[in-house]
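[audit] Reproducing an earlier prediction to check determinism. Same input, same settings, fresh worker. If the tokens differ from the archived copy the diff job will pick it up downstream; this log only records the rerun itself.
[audit] input (307 residues):
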Amino acid sequence: MILSEVTNILGPIVIITLIGYFLGRSSLGLHSHTLSTIVILVATPALIFNTLTSLHVDPLTIGKMATAALVCLAIAGLLALLAIWMFGGSLRSFLPGLMLPNSGNMGLPLVALAFGDEGMRLGISYFFVVALFQHSVGLSITAGSIRLKSLAQQPLIYSVALVLVVAFFDLPVPQLVLTTTEMLGSMMIPAMLILLGSSLASLQVTDFRPALAMAVGRLTIGLLSAAAVIYLLDLSGIVAGSVFLLATMPTAIVTYVFAERYQQNPRQVAGGVVLSTLLTFCCLPVLVWAALRISELDHSGIASVLK
């Protein structure tokens, strides 16, 4: 029963990612930049707006998951700083990779398949914080200077603002808008998985040791930060299971984009992204099983496990 449940969750993710990988390796000329632009500018804001309005997510739920994401990122950042201080390495190159999880390409499909509409609702509320953090704090760390201006260029921040306005004033959303955003948003998850596969096809592992260190470090930091947040915020049920999955995802691919742009050891970061993703794929059956079991525990059950 458990094996079948985990297989049904992981199967579609692996298959669609492999499709993206083979498309990236083929001579068809998949334009990843164009696809990623559509995902960022159109599909992501549409999915966020449609999910959080059509599923009637209240501001308290959004606030709880946003808080969980912020605390998780803060703990991950502290642990990453400690790891770099202990083992050496460039902060600008490796801090974003150790701190920032791929909660979009891998995290959202996982929580959606594992926990259905509830998981999607919670996942979106978590993901938008991580995405904003990536394109502000993560970008600033790699650039070596504050780049908060990039926040204003992220369409998802306006999508979230609209959701909060609709929720706070209890405004009705026209069916035309709901249907349009549902159609546009529905392409986000498969497109993200295809992008993940095509990115893995183009990235290479050139320096194995630092790449392996980043991969193991990201998974370890993800597990520790997830456990800490679940305990500190007293989370339980599907909320705890979703936070666990989203926090333990591999290094975000965008960290390589930043490293390449500002020439911060891009080859080592690329290797870290590849090995981190492969390591997480290998661990996914255990991670999904753990998330499902966590979602079945109440507050006292989780507290006893963590203690």
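[audit] rerun output stored. Observation attached for the diff report: DSSP finds 13 helices and no strands in the chain.
[audit] end
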